[in-house]
Amino acid sequence: MSKKNEMEIRRKADSVEAMLKADGVYRIPNDEPGFASSVASLLHRRFPNSDLKVQEPPRNFGGEYVFRSSSHLGTKVTEGE
Description:
The chain is of the alpha+beta class. The chain is built from two helices and three strands. The chain has a three-stranded antiparallel sheet with strand order 1-3-2.
């Protein structure tokens, strides 16, 4: 993988992480093979014990990846804390 691709994946993972912490859900169109799955892999490595779930589209092209974290990657304060 080229340095440019690695940087794009890291940058997108940072964006997805920020949106998950804020909203708990983020969608990425599946228009580049392997891009969204690479972002998902990186986030799973960053947050190995989180409740992060990634719903993959049924086909190679089209659809979207849906990233969800009900705990907002551990930043959501729940009652009693």
